[in-house]
Design brief:
Number of helices: 2
Radius of gyration: 21 Å
Helix content: 10-25%
CATH superfamily of one domain: Nucleic acid-binding proteins
Shape: elongated
CATH architecture of one domain: Beta Barrel
């Protein structure tokens, strides 16, 4: 086998390995609050918001609010950024980040609003209008 084919094959293998490692690090699992507290890794948590808990700190430029997960557990979320414009209409919020020093430090927020996903005036088979 010629040396240029060997070098080319090694380069291809290195790029495939790099791509696989990059893909693996981009996967962020959804976990319950209890797992997020224990892991110390970047994870995603989701829950419903306690709207009255939402506060924007002008000095620290952080948006703080509380989430309640399906198990009924509650967690303080601290997001370094501005409050999403549709936060009040949110049915569910997904926060991506890590648990640190007693609260969840979010790097990203995904606000799920029901109006974007539900069709208006669609009738359910039992005759209930959605």
């Amino acid at each position: 086998m010629q040396p240029k084919y060997i070098v080319g094959s090694i380069i291809v293998v290195v790029f495939i390995a790099f791509a696989a490692m990059s893909f693996q690090t981009s996967l962020t699992p959804y976990v319950p609050f209890s797992t997020a507290m224990e892991s110390g890794k970047t994870v995603q948590v989701k829950g419903t918001t306690l709207a009255e808990s939402a506060r924007y700190d002008e000095v620290g430029k952080t948006f703080n609010f509380r989430l309640v997960d399906a198990a009924g557990d509650e967690m303080l979320i601290i997001y370094n950024g501005v409050k999403p414009s549709n936060f009040e209409q949110a049915k569910e919020v997904v926060a991506k980040g890590r648990y640190h020093q007693g609260n969840f430090q979010a790097d990203e927020l995904l606000v799920k609003c029901p109006s974007k996903y539900e069709a208006e005036g669609v009738e359910h088979p039992e005759g209930v209008k959605l």
